[in-house]
Amino acid sequence: MSTQTLQATSSRVSVLVLLTVTALVFVFLAYNDTAVLDAQPNDLQEKAEKKVEESEPNKVQEPVASCVWDPKSQDSCTDAFSKHLHHKGSSIDGSAAVPRRWLFFGDSTVARLFTKSKVLVDHFVDEPARDNSNACQAQFQCKRHEHGRCKLAEFFQQQPATHWIPPNTTLGEGPKAFGAKNPFCSDCSGCSSVYTICKPKSAKITNCDTSKLIYGGFFSVEFARDVVLQTTQFQTTQENVAQFVHDHFNEPASLQTDFGGKPICVASAGLHDMGIKKITASKFVGIVHWYLELLQQQCDSIVWLQNTAPQRQNSTDPFTSFPQHWVSVEAWNRAVHQHLNETVELDTSRILVMDVFESSKAWPFAKPDDNIHKSNDWYEMLASFFKDMAQEAAAQGSNTLQATQTAT
Protein backbone atom coordinates (compact mmCIF):
# COMPACT_ATOMS: atom_id res chain seq x y z
CA MET A 1 0.00 0.00 0.00
CA SER A 2 1.39 3.35 -0.96
CA THR A 3 2.26 6.03 1.57
CA GLN A 4 -0.46 8.32 0.17
CA THR A 5 -3.09 5.61 0.63
CA LEU A 6 -2.04 5.05 4.27
CA GLN A 7 -2.18 8.77 5.00
CA ALA A 8 -5.66 9.05 3.48
CA THR A 9 -6.92 6.05 5.45
CA SER A 10 -5.43 7.44 8.66
CA SER A 11 -7.09 10.81 8.07
CA ARG A 12 -10.49 9.16 7.49
CA VAL A 13 -10.12 7.14 10.70
CA SER A 14 -9.15 10.26 12.66
CA VAL A 15 -12.15 12.16 11.34
CA LEU A 16 -14.43 9.21 12.09
CA VAL A 17 -13.08 8.93 15.65
CA LEU A 18 -13.43 12.68 16.15
CA LEU A 19 -17.04 12.62 14.92
CA THR A 20 -17.85 9.66 17.15
CA VAL A 21 -16.32 11.30 20.22
CA THR A 22 -18.12 14.57 19.45
CA ALA A 23 -21.43 12.77 19.12
CA LEU A 24 -20.90 10.97 22.41
CA VAL A 25 -20.06 14.27 24.10
CA PHE A 26 -23.25 15.88 22.79
CA VAL A 27 -25.29 12.89 23.94
CA PHE A 28 -23.68 13.03 27.38
CA LEU A 29 -24.21 16.77 27.73
CA ALA A 30 -27.78 16.52 26.56
CA TYR A 31 -28.48 13.74 29.02
CA ASN A 32 -26.64 15.53 31.81
CA ASP A 33 -28.51 18.81 31.21
CA THR A 34 -31.80 16.94 31.28
CA ALA A 35 -30.79 15.20 34.48
CA VAL A 36 -29.80 18.51 36.08
CA LEU A 37 -33.02 20.21 35.05
CA ASP A 38 -35.05 17.29 36.29
CA ALA A 39 -33.16 17.25 39.57
CA GLN A 40 -33.31 21.00 40.35
CA PRO A 41 -36.81 21.10 41.85
CA ASN A 42 -36.05 18.13 44.09
CA ASP A 43 -32.72 19.62 45.14
CA LEU A 44 -34.35 22.94 46.00
CA GLN A 45 -37.12 21.23 47.89
CA GLU A 46 -34.62 19.15 49.86
CA LYS A 47 -32.58 22.24 50.70
CA ALA A 48 -35.69 24.11 51.75
CA GLU A 49 -36.90 21.25 53.90
CA LYS A 50 -33.47 20.90 55.47
CA LYS A 51 -33.38 24.62 56.20
CA VAL A 52 -36.77 24.43 57.88
CA GLU A 53 -35.68 21.43 59.94
CA GLU A 54 -32.48 23.15 61.04
CA SER A 55 -34.06 26.53 61.77
CA GLU A 56 -35.96 27.48 64.89
CA PRO A 57 -39.76 27.42 64.73
CA ASN A 58 -41.26 30.65 63.48
CA LYS A 59 -41.70 33.03 66.37
CA VAL A 60 -44.88 35.06 66.65
CA GLN A 61 -44.12 38.73 67.27
CA GLU A 62 -45.36 39.59 70.73
CA PRO A 63 -47.25 42.89 71.04
CA VAL A 64 -45.27 45.59 72.80
CA ALA A 65 -46.20 46.00 76.45
CA SER A 66 -48.60 48.88 77.03
CA CYS A 67 -50.80 50.46 79.65
CA VAL A 68 -53.43 53.18 79.90
CA TRP A 69 -52.79 55.68 82.68
CA ASP A 70 -55.61 57.55 84.36
CA PRO A 71 -55.22 59.67 87.50
CA LYS A 72 -58.28 57.93 88.93
CA SER A 73 -57.27 54.42 87.89
CA GLN A 74 -53.56 53.65 87.81
CA ASP A 75 -53.63 49.87 88.24
CA SER A 76 -53.06 49.17 84.54
CA CYS A 77 -49.75 51.02 84.50
CA THR A 78 -48.73 49.96 88.00
CA ASP A 79 -48.99 46.31 86.95
CA ALA A 80 -47.27 46.93 83.60
CA PHE A 81 -44.35 48.78 85.19
CA SER A 82 -43.89 46.11 87.84
CA LYS A 83 -43.93 43.34 85.25
CA HIS A 84 -41.87 44.87 82.45
CA LEU A 85 -39.52 47.36 84.12
CA HIS A 86 -38.74 46.05 87.59
CA HIS A 87 -36.77 43.06 86.43
CA LYS A 88 -33.18 41.93 86.36
CA GLY A 89 -31.22 44.46 84.41
CA SER A 90 -27.83 44.38 82.74
CA SER A 91 -25.44 44.96 85.62
CA ILE A 92 -21.91 43.75 85.05
CA ASP A 93 -21.85 41.06 87.74
CA GLY A 94 -25.59 40.37 87.89
CA SER A 95 -25.98 41.51 91.49
CA ALA A 96 -28.77 43.85 92.60
CA ALA A 97 -29.70 44.14 88.95
CA VAL A 98 -32.86 46.22 89.20
CA PRO A 99 -32.43 49.53 87.31
CA ARG A 100 -32.81 52.41 89.74
CA ARG A 101 -31.85 55.53 87.80
CA TRP A 102 -34.41 57.35 85.68
CA LEU A 103 -33.88 59.74 82.76
CA PHE A 104 -36.62 61.72 81.02
CA PHE A 105 -36.40 63.01 77.43
CA GLY A 106 -38.94 65.30 75.81
CA ASP A 107 -40.47 68.67 75.02
CA SER A 108 -42.23 71.26 77.18
CA THR A 109 -44.87 68.75 78.33
CA VAL A 110 -42.18 66.48 79.77
CA ALA A 111 -40.34 69.52 81.14
CA ARG A 112 -43.49 70.48 83.06
CA LEU A 113 -43.87 66.91 84.24
CA PHE A 114 -40.31 66.83 85.53
CA THR A 115 -39.59 70.35 86.77
CA LYS A 116 -42.77 72.40 87.19
CA SER A 117 -44.46 69.83 89.42
CA LYS A 118 -41.30 69.70 91.60
CA VAL A 119 -42.00 66.04 92.41
CA LEU A 120 -39.44 64.51 90.07
CA VAL A 121 -36.81 67.25 90.08
CA ASP A 122 -36.70 67.06 93.88
CA HIS A 123 -36.50 63.26 93.92
CA PHE A 124 -34.00 62.65 91.11
CA VAL A 125 -31.95 65.87 91.02
CA ASP A 126 -32.03 68.06 94.12
CA GLU A 127 -32.11 65.49 96.94
CA PRO A 128 -29.20 63.35 95.65
CA ALA A 129 -27.10 66.47 95.02
CA ARG A 130 -27.53 67.94 98.50
CA ASP A 131 -27.86 64.90 100.79
CA ASN A 132 -24.66 63.19 101.86
CA SER A 133 -25.93 62.06 105.23
CA ASN A 134 -25.57 58.31 104.82
CA ALA A 135 -22.52 56.15 104.28
CA CYS A 136 -23.50 55.27 100.74
CA GLN A 137 -23.88 58.82 99.47
CA ALA A 138 -20.62 59.79 101.14
CA GLN A 139 -18.85 57.45 98.72
CA PHE A 140 -20.22 59.25 95.68
CA GLN A 141 -19.76 62.78 94.45
CA CYS A 142 -23.13 64.01 93.18
CA LYS A 143 -23.43 67.29 91.31
CA ARG A 144 -26.49 69.10 89.96
CA HIS A 145 -26.40 70.51 86.42
CA GLU A 146 -28.81 72.81 84.61
CA HIS A 147 -28.56 74.05 81.04
CA GLY A 148 -29.61 77.22 79.31
CA ARG A 149 -31.42 77.55 76.00
CA CYS A 150 -28.35 78.05 73.79
CA LYS A 151 -24.76 76.81 73.51
CA LEU A 152 -25.83 73.37 74.63
CA ALA A 153 -22.57 71.71 73.59
CA GLU A 154 -20.74 73.72 76.22
CA PHE A 155 -23.19 72.60 78.90
CA PHE A 156 -22.80 68.99 77.81
CA GLN A 157 -19.01 69.39 77.80
CA GLN A 158 -18.87 68.43 74.13
CA GLN A 159 -16.97 70.09 71.31
CA PRO A 160 -19.43 72.22 69.30
CA ALA A 161 -19.50 71.91 65.54
CA THR A 162 -17.47 74.59 63.80
CA HIS A 163 -20.36 75.26 61.42
CA TRP A 164 -24.03 74.85 62.35
CA ILE A 165 -26.07 73.04 59.69
CA PRO A 166 -29.74 74.15 59.50
CA PRO A 167 -32.51 71.56 59.88
CA ASN A 168 -33.48 69.54 56.83
CA THR A 169 -37.28 69.46 56.82
CA THR A 170 -37.32 66.68 54.22
CA LEU A 171 -35.74 64.50 56.90
CA GLY A 172 -38.33 65.67 59.43
CA GLU A 173 -35.74 67.63 61.41
CA GLY A 174 -36.34 70.41 63.91
CA PRO A 175 -36.01 73.02 65.23
CA LYS A 176 -38.56 75.10 63.40
CA ALA A 177 -38.92 78.42 65.26
CA PHE A 178 -36.43 80.23 67.51
CA GLY A 179 -33.88 77.47 67.17
CA ALA A 180 -34.04 77.54 63.38
CA LYS A 181 -33.08 81.23 63.38
CA ASN A 182 -30.58 81.07 66.22
CA PRO A 183 -27.90 78.39 65.74
CA PHE A 184 -27.26 76.04 68.66
CA CYS A 185 -30.47 77.17 70.43
CA SER A 186 -33.70 75.33 71.19
CA ASP A 187 -37.21 76.41 70.28
CA CYS A 188 -38.49 76.06 73.82
CA SER A 189 -37.52 78.79 76.29
CA GLY A 190 -38.62 76.92 79.41
CA CYS A 191 -37.28 73.43 78.73
CA SER A 192 -33.85 73.54 80.31
CA SER A 193 -32.17 70.21 80.87
CA VAL A 194 -31.61 69.53 84.56
CA TYR A 195 -29.96 66.44 86.03
CA THR A 196 -27.62 65.13 88.70
CA ILE A 197 -24.55 63.04 87.96
CA CYS A 198 -23.05 60.82 90.64
CA LYS A 199 -19.56 59.42 90.31
CA PRO A 200 -17.84 57.02 92.74
CA LYS A 201 -15.02 58.61 94.72
CA SER A 202 -13.03 55.38 94.67
CA ALA A 203 -12.76 52.29 92.52
CA LYS A 204 -14.54 50.10 95.07
CA ILE A 205 -17.76 50.95 96.89
CA THR A 206 -18.29 49.12 100.20
CA ASN A 207 -21.29 48.65 102.50
CA CYS A 208 -23.40 50.75 100.20
CA ASP A 209 -27.09 50.26 99.49
CA THR A 210 -27.51 52.41 96.40
CA SER A 211 -31.28 52.10 96.61
CA LYS A 212 -30.97 55.05 99.00
CA LEU A 213 -29.19 57.06 96.32
CA ILE A 214 -31.48 57.44 93.33
CA TYR A 215 -30.58 60.05 90.76
CA GLY A 216 -31.36 61.02 87.19
CA GLY A 217 -32.76 63.98 85.33
CA PHE A 218 -34.52 65.57 82.39
CA PHE A 219 -33.00 66.22 78.96
CA SER A 220 -34.61 68.73 76.66
CA VAL A 221 -35.19 66.81 73.42
CA GLU A 222 -38.06 68.63 71.72
CA PHE A 223 -38.29 66.54 68.56
CA ALA A 224 -37.75 62.93 67.55
CA ARG A 225 -34.93 64.29 65.38
CA ASP A 226 -33.40 67.77 65.53
CA VAL A 227 -30.12 69.60 65.00
CA VAL A 228 -30.15 71.94 68.00
CA LEU A 229 -27.16 70.25 69.63
CA GLN A 230 -24.44 69.80 67.01
CA THR A 231 -20.92 68.70 67.85
CA THR A 232 -17.83 67.62 65.99
CA GLN A 233 -18.97 64.04 66.58
CA PHE A 234 -22.69 64.08 65.71
CA GLN A 235 -25.08 66.41 63.90
CA THR A 236 -28.26 65.64 65.84
CA THR A 237 -29.34 66.32 69.41
CA GLN A 238 -30.49 62.74 69.83
CA GLU A 239 -27.11 61.22 68.96
CA ASN A 240 -25.21 63.67 71.14
CA VAL A 241 -27.51 63.22 74.14
CA ALA A 242 -27.24 59.44 73.78
CA GLN A 243 -23.46 59.79 73.77
CA PHE A 244 -23.66 61.97 76.88
CA VAL A 245 -25.73 59.34 78.68
CA HIS A 246 -23.13 56.73 77.74
CA ASP A 247 -20.25 58.84 79.00
CA HIS A 248 -21.79 60.00 82.29
CA PHE A 249 -24.43 57.45 83.29
CA ASN A 250 -22.99 54.21 81.89
CA GLU A 251 -19.28 54.84 82.42
CA PRO A 252 -17.36 53.76 84.35
CA ALA A 253 -18.92 50.34 84.00
CA SER A 254 -19.08 50.02 87.78
CA LEU A 255 -21.98 52.48 87.75
CA GLN A 256 -24.11 49.87 86.03
CA THR A 257 -23.22 47.38 88.75
CA ASP A 258 -23.81 49.85 91.58
CA PHE A 259 -27.20 50.98 90.30
CA GLY A 260 -28.70 47.82 88.84
CA GLY A 261 -27.89 48.38 85.19
CA LYS A 262 -28.36 51.15 82.69
CA PRO A 263 -31.01 53.80 83.42
CA ILE A 264 -34.71 53.47 82.74
CA CYS A 265 -35.58 56.09 80.12
CA VAL A 266 -38.91 57.87 79.68
CA ALA A 267 -39.16 59.47 76.24
CA SER A 268 -41.80 61.38 74.32
CA ALA A 269 -42.03 63.27 71.04
CA GLY A 270 -44.55 64.34 68.43
CA LEU A 271 -46.22 67.59 69.43
CA HIS A 272 -43.37 69.77 68.17
CA ASP A 273 -42.73 67.47 65.21
CA MET A 274 -46.25 68.12 63.89
CA GLY A 275 -45.22 71.68 63.10
CA ILE A 276 -42.51 70.60 60.63
CA LYS A 277 -43.51 71.25 57.03
CA LYS A 278 -44.72 68.26 55.01
CA ILE A 279 -44.06 65.77 57.79
CA THR A 280 -46.37 62.78 57.83
CA ALA A 281 -47.28 60.20 60.43
CA SER A 282 -45.34 57.51 58.56
CA LYS A 283 -42.21 59.67 58.37
CA PHE A 284 -42.53 60.45 62.06
CA VAL A 285 -42.79 56.75 62.88
CA GLY A 286 -39.57 56.09 60.98
CA ILE A 287 -37.80 58.83 62.92
CA VAL A 288 -39.10 57.50 66.24
CA HIS A 289 -37.73 54.07 65.31
CA TRP A 290 -34.30 55.63 64.72
CA TYR A 291 -34.54 57.55 68.01
CA LEU A 292 -35.48 54.45 69.98
CA GLU A 293 -32.56 52.55 68.46
CA LEU A 294 -30.24 55.19 69.90
CA LEU A 295 -31.88 55.07 73.31
CA GLN A 296 -31.87 51.28 73.48
CA GLN A 297 -28.09 51.32 73.35
CA GLN A 298 -27.96 53.39 76.55
CA CYS A 299 -31.14 52.49 78.45
CA ASP A 300 -32.11 49.30 80.22
CA SER A 301 -35.79 49.87 79.40
CA ILE A 302 -37.78 52.61 77.66
CA VAL A 303 -41.17 54.02 78.54
CA TRP A 304 -42.60 55.63 75.41
CA LEU A 305 -44.95 58.28 76.81
CA GLN A 306 -47.74 58.99 74.32
CA ASN A 307 -48.91 62.57 73.82
CA THR A 308 -51.82 64.15 75.65
CA ALA A 309 -54.93 65.44 73.88
CA PRO A 310 -54.74 69.08 72.73
CA GLN A 311 -57.56 71.54 73.26
CA ARG A 312 -58.29 71.73 69.53
CA GLN A 313 -60.45 68.75 68.52
CA ASN A 314 -60.03 68.57 64.72
CA SER A 315 -58.61 70.42 61.72
CA THR A 316 -61.72 72.61 61.35
CA ASP A 317 -61.85 73.61 65.01
CA PRO A 318 -61.58 77.42 65.03
CA PHE A 319 -59.87 77.43 68.44
CA THR A 320 -56.43 77.74 66.82
CA SER A 321 -54.65 77.08 63.54
CA PHE A 322 -51.99 74.88 65.11
CA PRO A 323 -51.68 71.38 63.58
CA GLN A 324 -52.05 69.61 66.92
CA HIS A 325 -55.61 68.42 67.47
CA TRP A 326 -57.35 65.31 68.78
CA VAL A 327 -57.48 63.58 65.40
CA SER A 328 -53.84 64.16 64.43
CA VAL A 329 -52.36 63.42 67.85
CA GLU A 330 -54.39 60.24 68.28
CA ALA A 331 -53.40 59.10 64.77
CA TRP A 332 -49.70 59.64 65.46
CA ASN A 333 -49.94 57.91 68.84
CA ARG A 334 -51.65 54.95 67.21
CA ALA A 335 -49.13 54.80 64.34
CA VAL A 336 -46.17 54.58 66.72
CA HIS A 337 -47.90 51.97 68.87
CA GLN A 338 -48.79 49.88 65.82
CA HIS A 339 -45.23 50.05 64.51
CA LEU A 340 -43.85 48.86 67.85
CA ASN A 341 -46.30 45.97 67.76
CA GLU A 342 -45.03 44.91 64.34
CA THR A 343 -41.32 45.73 64.16
CA VAL A 344 -38.72 43.01 64.71
CA GLU A 345 -35.78 45.40 64.46
CA LEU A 346 -36.21 46.83 67.96
CA ASP A 347 -36.08 44.88 71.19
CA THR A 348 -39.68 45.66 72.07
CA SER A 349 -39.47 43.46 75.17
CA ARG A 350 -37.63 46.43 76.68
CA ILE A 351 -40.23 49.02 75.63
CA LEU A 352 -43.46 49.97 77.39
CA VAL A 353 -46.01 52.24 75.69
CA MET A 354 -47.83 54.46 78.18
CA ASP A 355 -51.11 55.90 76.87
CA VAL A 356 -52.27 59.13 78.52
CA PHE A 357 -54.34 60.43 75.60
CA GLU A 358 -57.84 59.31 76.60
CA SER A 359 -57.58 60.33 80.24
CA SER A 360 -56.23 63.76 79.29
CA LYS A 361 -59.16 64.69 77.04
CA ALA A 362 -61.35 66.03 79.82
CA TRP A 363 -58.52 67.51 81.84
CA PRO A 364 -58.30 71.33 82.11
CA PHE A 365 -55.50 73.24 80.44
CA ALA A 366 -52.91 75.53 81.99
CA LYS A 367 -54.54 78.57 80.38
CA PRO A 368 -57.74 79.12 78.38
CA ASP A 369 -55.73 79.83 75.23
CA ASP A 370 -53.18 77.01 75.73
CA ASN A 371 -53.65 74.26 73.16
CA ILE A 372 -51.14 71.80 74.62
CA HIS A 373 -50.24 72.07 78.29
CA LYS A 374 -52.44 70.65 81.03
CA SER A 375 -52.92 72.19 84.45
CA ASN A 376 -50.25 71.61 87.08
CA ASP A 377 -52.44 69.03 88.84
CA TRP A 378 -52.12 66.72 85.85
CA TYR A 379 -48.33 66.81 85.85
CA GLU A 380 -48.12 66.47 89.63
CA MET A 381 -50.23 63.31 89.62
CA LEU A 382 -48.33 61.80 86.70
CA ALA A 383 -45.02 62.75 88.32
CA SER A 384 -46.12 61.14 91.59
CA PHE A 385 -46.87 57.95 89.70
CA PHE A 386 -43.35 57.87 88.22
CA LYS A 387 -41.86 58.60 91.63
CA ASP A 388 -43.82 55.71 93.16
CA MET A 389 -42.59 53.38 90.43
CA ALA A 390 -38.99 54.53 90.96
CA GLN A 391 -39.27 53.95 94.70
CA GLU A 392 -40.72 50.50 94.11
CA ALA A 393 -37.78 49.68 91.84
CA ALA A 394 -35.37 51.01 94.46
CA ALA A 395 -36.95 48.87 97.16
CA GLN A 396 -36.75 45.81 94.93
CA GLY A 397 -33.13 46.62 94.16
CA SER A 398 -32.39 46.90 97.87
CA ASN A 399 -33.98 43.50 98.53
CA THR A 400 -32.02 41.95 95.68
CA LEU A 401 -28.78 43.44 96.98
CA GLN A 402 -29.43 42.19 100.52
CA ALA A 403 -30.22 38.71 99.22
CA THR A 404 -27.01 38.70 97.18
CA GLN A 405 -24.92 39.84 100.14
CA THR A 406 -26.53 37.22 102.40
CA ALA A 407 -25.83 34.47 99.86
CA THR A 408 -22.18 35.44 99.62
Folded structure, characterized:
The protein has 408 residues and is an alpha/beta fold. The protein has one domain (70-407): 3-Layer(aba) Sandwich (Rossmann fold), CATH 3.40.50.1110. It has helices spanning 3-54, 75-84, 108-116, 119-130, 152-155, 178-181, 237-249, 254-258, 281-298, 326-342, 357-360, 376-407; strands at 65-68, 102-106, 140-146, 194-200, 216-220, 264-267, 301-305, 351-355. An 8-stranded mixed β-sheet has the order 1-8-7-6-2-5-4-3, with helices on both faces. Helix 3 packs across helix 12 (376-407) and helix 9 crosses helix 10 (326-342).
The sequence of SSEs as H and E is: HEHEHHEHHEEHHEHEHEHH
User: How far is it from the N-terminal to the C-terminal residue, by CA?
Assistant: 108 Å
Quickly count the domains.
1
**Count of distinct strands:** 8
Can you identify the CATH class?
Alpha Beta
What is the typical, i.e. mean, pLDDT? 83
- For the largest sheet, list the strands in their spatial order: 1-8-7-6-2-5-4-3
- Total of DSSP H or I helical runs spanning 4+ residues: 12
What structural class results from the helix and strand content? Answer: alpha/beta
Any descriptors?
408 residues; alpha/beta; disordered N terminus; disordered C terminus
Compose a concise summary of this entry.
The protein is an alpha/beta fold and 408 residues long.
